[in-house]
Automatic annotation (TrEMBL), chain A:
Membrane-spanning segments: 27-46, 81-102, 122-154, 166-186, 215-236, 257-282, 297-319, 326-343
Key words, A-Z: Cell membrane, Membrane, Transmembrane, Transmembrane helix, Transport
Protein name: Iron chelate uptake ABC transporter family permease subunit
PANTHER family membership: FERRIC ENTEROBACTIN TRANSPORT SYSTEM PERMEASE PROTEIN, FERRIC ENTEROBACTIN TRANSPORT SYSTEM PERMEASE PROTEIN FEPG
Membrane topology: Multi-pass membrane protein
Species annotation: Paractinoplanes lichenicola
CDD domains: TM_ABC_iron-siderophores_like
Pfam families: FecCD
Transport listed as a keyword: yes
Family: Belongs to the binding-protein-dependent transport system permease family. FecCD subfamily.
Subcellular location: Cell membrane
From TrEMBL, chain B:
Regions crossing the membrane: 58-75, 87-107, 113-132, 144-165, 192-216, 228-253, 273-292, 304-320
Keywords, in A-Z order: Cell membrane, Membrane, Transmembrane, Transmembrane helix, Transport
Species of provenance: Paractinoplanes lichenicola
This protein's record includes keyword Transmembrane: yes
Name by which UniProt lists this protein: Iron chelate uptake ABC transporter family permease subunit
The keyword Ribonucleoprotein appears for this protein: no
Subcellular location: Cell membrane
InterPro entries, A to Z: ABC_BtuC-like, ABC_transptr_permease_BtuC
CDD domains for this protein: TM_ABC_iron-siderophores_like (cd06550)
Coiled-coil ranges per UniProt: none
Length: 351, 329
């Protein structure tokens, strides 16, 4: 990606041995995103066949509310909303990591083989197992994602892994795996093909606490890990030689970043199917909102959660009787916004 | 060296044309094929097979392969991105969306979708170019890639929404999307040939400007290139080539991504050599993949897009891993 000179709005912060700079603009964008996320979350929990006012939603979340409200909010709607938030944050951070170390704005976790591998695992189980194997789909997706990502990494290894080679090998492996998905789709019964297509578009409908807990646990470990790679990332966005001369152990650093990105994306895909567009669009939007030379991680996480939850609410508001998979709506919401940002930036540059 | 490589690629293309004519459910002797093409004996069975079935398909495969190879090289050059494929301008997504609309409107058969697909590809890529270009100066590699990705995703989500609501359309569409040379008659090749010919000419004409643009827009401008015009010509060529190819065969995107990397490792990054080499390598690989698809599950066949990914991708990975590796853009 084109390195942009960061605006002089950074403030130095010190905390014991550690010091760094914080961008005021990023803080403002992050805070605004957080406020919006909370508002949409409350609205999203309140909306449904049985509408609950925002005040009552907050009250219920904080421990009040009637028994009926507690059942609806805590047991029925909260798991879905939490899945949307977590999946969005995970995918966005995974995308930001991938785009930074690959130095390519088109890179997203699918170039690491994660999404394609998960798709093959899930579609294989759907087509071969029929309706009986529905419970196995998330496990098959997770296994597919991790195996494919490992394969990509091993195949890209030749006296170390180079970002460029990793991405190209990932594309090649992804194509083979996608061909497998197409093959399953062509030979499947049309009913199974439809079910597979629904999964392939990504959906958070029907999420339950059993799925939320492992996802939340995984993210609790992985998101801090991702933020901890910040310093490495700052070096990795330059040329390999520059990064090395800055004291970065290239192979270890790259493996850590790739592992974190893969694990985040795999957890998200296993929980909700491939909501691919989030990982691509959110880091680019965050980069354009915050300025700087690479997609910011924390702001990406917040905006990713916001995008998925807005898309989920929009899908339920637009077509209440037949739910659109959220993966489709993220593109319908996110793509125009990115396009608008591109047009606006063009105007400002040319003005 | 480079003329020799180009000659070799031409020979490989010619060989794959012969293989494509000779091999299938019934294997024919190359001599018989030659005779059927040059001096047809109307009573011979070989004549019927070659002239009625295999010749149109081979000509189509040749055209599509040339088109996608050249379009891929142009696309990666203009976006300066090794991950770009010809579909990145929104061509595949636009064509897919238009085809689904066509299915909804009841357009008949695979040939009926051609004009829908072409119109969709054209509209989508004009939108991408317009958004990426801004008011003056023309699009940069990054805006072109991002706008293309965003438009593709947007159109893709509309396509999928329609398909989810309409199982009958999905049943037709899933065979179009996979990408195949089968079932297209001679008329299809004749319909797309003029577009592909024009696109190839534009692509070759665009090569010197693309070399200059590779040095950065400011340097290109200082060298006397009209940046906006060069980008516009390049995009027009990509739309003609990839649009016609997608309209005829469905999206075979991976070919356009993989082939320029192979060609670049053979002739280097100079687009005056890269574009023809890429076109020839594209035709060779597409025809070989098509032949392979006919052999593997004979007497049936495997869709070309699937074979291309399943057989082409391992080769691509091998190339990326090889000692010479791929040449960076």
């Amino acid at each position: 990606m084109t390195p942009v000179l960061s605006p002089p709005d950074r403030r130095a912060v010190h905390a014991g041995r550690f010091s760094g700079t914080v961008s005021l603009r990023s803080m403002l964008v992050g805070a605004a995103g957080l406020v919006l996320t909370v508002i949409v979350t409350v609205l999203g929990i309140g909306h449904g066949s049985f509408t609950i006012a925002p005040g009552e939603v907050l009250d219920t979340l904080l421990g009040g509310g009637t028994a009926a409200q507690r059942l609806i909010v805590l047991d029925l709607r909260l798991p879905r909303i939490l899945t949307a938030l977590l999946v969005g944050a995970a995918l966005a951070v995974s995308g930001a990591l991938t785009q930074t170390f690959a130095r390519n704005p088109l890179a997203s976790p699918d170039v690491l083989g994660v999404t394609h591998g998960a798709s093959l695992g899930a579609v294989a189980v759907i087509v071969l197992g029929g309706g009986a194997a529905a419970g196995l789909v998330p496990i098959a997706a997770l296994a597919g994602a991790l195996i494919t990502a490992a394969l990509v990494y091993v195949l890209a290894w030749r006296r170390g892994v180079d970002g460029f080679r990793l991405v190209l090998v990932g594309i090649g492996v992804g194509e083979v795996v996608t061909a497998g998905v197409s093959w399953f789709l062509v030979r499947a019964e049309v009913v199974d093909a439809t079910r597979a297509t629904i999964w392939l578009n990504g959906s958070v409908a029907g999420a339950e606490w059993d799925q939320v807990r492992p996802l939340a646990l995984g993210l609790a470990v992985l998101l801090p890990l991702a933020v901890a790679t910040t310093f490495t990332l700052q070096a990795l966005q330059f040329d390999d030689d520059v990064a090395q001369s800055l004291g970065v152990r290239l192979q270890t650093a790259r493996l850590a970043v790739v592992l974190t990105a893969v694990a985040l994306a795999a957890a998200a895909v296993a929980a909700a199917g491939p909501i691919e567009f989030v990982a691509f669009v959110v880091p680019q939007v965050a980069l354009r909102l915050c300025g700087g030379s690479r997609p910011p991680l924390v702001v990406s996480a917040i905006l990713g959660a916001l995008l998925v939850i807005v898309a989920d609410l929009a899908a339920r508001l637009a077509l209440p009787e037949r739910e659109l998979p959220v993966g489709l709506v993220t593109a319908m919401v996110g793509a125009p916004y990115l396009l608008w940002l591109l047009i606006r930036t063009n105007r400002r540059v040319s003005a | 060296m480079r003329p020799l490589v180009l000659l070799g690629l031409g020979a490989a293309t010619a060989l794959s044309v012969v293989l494509s004519l000779a091999i299938g459910a019934q294997w024919l002797h190359p001599g018989g094929v030659w005779q059927a093409v040059i001096d047809p004996d109307p009573t011979a069975q070989a004549t019927a097979i070659v002239r009625e079935l295999r010749l149109p398909r081979t000509v189509l495969g040749l055209l599509i392969g040339l088109a996608l190879g050249a379009a891929g090289a142009l696309m990666q050059g203009h976006t300066r991105n090794p991950l770009a494929d010809p579909g990145l301008l929104g061509i595949s997504a636009g064509a897919s969306f238009a085809v689904v609309i066509g299915i909804q409107l009841g357009a008949g058969g695979l040939t009926g979708y051609i004009w829908f697909a072409f119109a969709g590809a054209l509209a989508a890529s004009v939108a991408v170019f317009g958004i990426a270009a801004g008011r003056r100066g023309g699009p940069t590699p990054v805006t072109l890639a991002l706008a293309g990705m965003a438009i593709s995703a947007l159109l893709g989500s509309f396509t999928q929404s329609i398909l989810l609501a309409d199982q009958a359309s999905l049943n037709v569409f899933r065979f179009w999307i996979v990408g195949s040379l089968s079932g297209r008659d001679a008329e299809v090749a004749a319909q797309v040939a003029p577009f592909i010919a024009a696109g190839l000419l534009l692509a070759l004409a665009n090569a010197p400007a693309l070399n200059a643009l590779g040095l950065g827009e400011d340097v290109a401008r200082a060298l006397g290139q009209r940046v906006f015009a060069a980008r516009a010509v390049g995009v027009a060529a990509i739309v003609l080539l990839a649009g016609a190819a997608t309209a005829a065969c469905g999206p075979i995107g991976f070919l356009g991504l993989m082939v320029p990397h192979i060609a670049r490792s053979l002739v280097g990054p100079d687009h005056r050599w890269l574009i023809p080499a890429s076109a020839l390598a594209g035709a060779t690989l597409l025809l070989l993949a098509d032949v392979l698809g006919r052999i593997v599950v004979s007497p049936g066949e495997l869709q070309t897009g699937i074979v291309l990914a399943a057989a082409g991708a391992p080769f691509f990975i091998y190339l990326v891993r090889s000692r010479r590796g791929v040449v960076k853009l």
